[in-house]
Amino acid sequence: MLKTTIALSALAAVANAKVIFKEDFSKGWRERWVDSTFKGDDQGEWKWVAPKIHADKEADKGIQTSQDSKYYGISAKFPTFSNKDKDLVVQFQVTHEQGIDCGGGYVKIYGSGTKQEELHGETPYNIMFGPDICGSTKIVHLIFAHEGKNLLKKVPIQIESDTGPHIYTLVLSSDNTYKVLKDNEEAASGKLEDDWDFLLPKEIPDPEAKKPEYWDDRAEIPDPESKKPDDWDEQPEFIVDPEASKPADWDDEDDGEWEAPLIKNPEFKGSWTPKMLKNPAFKGLWTRPLKANPEYKSNDALYLYEDNAIIGFDLWQVKSGSIFDNVIVTDSLSDAKKFAKETFEPLQKYTAAEKLKEEERKKEAEKKTEGKNSKVSKEEDNEEDVELIEEEDEEEEDNIRDEL
Q1: Its pTM surpasses 0.90
Q2: 339-347 contacts: CB < 8 A, separation 24 or more?
Q3: Does residue 306 sit within a domain?
């Protein structure tokens, strides 16, 4: 497979550009990417490697986190653009071949004022997108910056995690909708307004509404026929221990006035309560009716980021070893899919084939092991039979000697 020639796209006219940025980490990638040094000694080192399972060693090279429990920051710049009236598509590949236990695997889109050498977790960004895994939490983050806040998706996008390569695609559209793909299969989609708290709610509970007097919200009511038994004696729960006596060495002046300890009252039944019945008039719990929110304002430009200029990885990983590759920023999903077909799909198919071969090798090894165990077992059985026969022969010889 020929190595795809990758470089920053020269944007003669940004408004008509299709591919804004494309990177497959071929030779020369270091000229396009800037490391963050913000965390000093806690900043992890990026390595340029191919996955252990690769279709083409050179073509499949990416950048890998190489030190455990470190921060990682690296970014690349492209000509500033606005996604006004067009799609914004962000796609990248990641292989967690270390079997990640806790760490990020996402990218961020930054504005032109970002200082790349000082990239860190608090650096303002426009969009954060990609997998984040820690223990049983395995999700795809999709966080949007809006009016000074970073808005998390109300319902997280759940994923599975393994050691193979995967590609993640975000499509942010000018009609205020979004779509997230994993390995070119849709993982989530919908409206920005519905799935994030960009705006105040369209409707709110009416503060002036009052519960009607006839509204019965009691699920159960006392049984009118239930009566307290005549022998129900409501005694106290605790009583003075009648067998307790003041210790002989008790000194009232030094120890204070002696009081007998309390014990659980064996006759205590508690307070009597009537039997409860299902309330036939129950209307459910009353809630305030909704009314139009006078402070709600629609916004047709929730999707819009006027200043997009940098893409970067800003991560923390407990267990390092993730390999990132094949990054593209474009306004065309078809361009992103084409790039995935050229770069990701050959690796994906080769990895799947190698996995199948490995499973077959394991099965063969298990069969051989079972065969050896079976052979050893038979040999052991034969040895036991020989020993048994020899013992029987010796016993018969002894009997003959005794008879003689």
Answers
A1: no
A2: 339/22, 339/91, 340/91, 340/93, 340/167, 340/169, 340/184, 342/4, 343/4, 343/24, 343/59, 343/93, 344/93, 344/165, 344/167, 346/1, 346/55, 346/56, 346/59, 347/51, 347/54, 347/55, 347/60, 347/165
A3: yes
Residue 284 lies in a domain: no
69: domain CATH number is 2.60.120.200
Angstrom distance (rounded) from CA 271 to CA 281: 27
In a domain, 162, yes or no: yes
The number of domains in the chain is 1
Q: What percent of the chain has pLDDT over 70?
A: 88
Q: Which residue segment(s) compose the domain that 61 sits in? A: 18-197+301-347
Query: Is 34 within the bounds of a domain?
Result: yes
pLDDT of 282 > 60? The answer is: yes
